[in-house]
Write a structure and sequence with these properties.
Elements (H helix, E strand, L loop, with lengths): L1 H27 L7 H42 L26
Helix pairs in contact: 1-2
Length: 103
């Protein structure tokens, strides 16, 4: 159930971001007293303000979702060796006189 809620939240996060930009653009050009060029300029400025707001709000939610994914991966892999780890013991390099072999 928690994964379903998480997936729903990440999907809605994108929709909320688009809504913030659209609402900002609409609010920027909503005054009936402005001329057509001023209304277009207001929509652009409102859209930019909406974009900044969406970046702060939805960026924070996306960051928390990313942290949750990493914590889930850590919890699922705790106590196990990574699948790409070698099975043999680690061998450290030795100091030898044949350093010329490494040029």
């Amino acid at each position: 159930m928690n994964r379903f809620i998480f997936e729903t939240m990440t999907f809605l996060n994108g929709i909320i971001a688009l809504a913030c930009v659209a609402i900002g653009a609409f609010a920027g050009g909503a005054s009936p007293l402005m001329s057509q060029s001023a209304r277009a300029f207001g929509m652009v400025i409102g859209g930019l303000v909406g974009l900044v707001f969406a970046a702060m709000l939805c960026g924070t939610i996306a960051f928390m979702a990313l942290v949750e994914q990493h914590l889930r991966a850590i919890a699922e892999n705790s106590g196990r060796t990574p699948s790409n780890a070698s099975s043999g013991a680690r061998k450290e390099p030795q100091m030898t006189d044949d350093w010329k072999d490494y040029r």
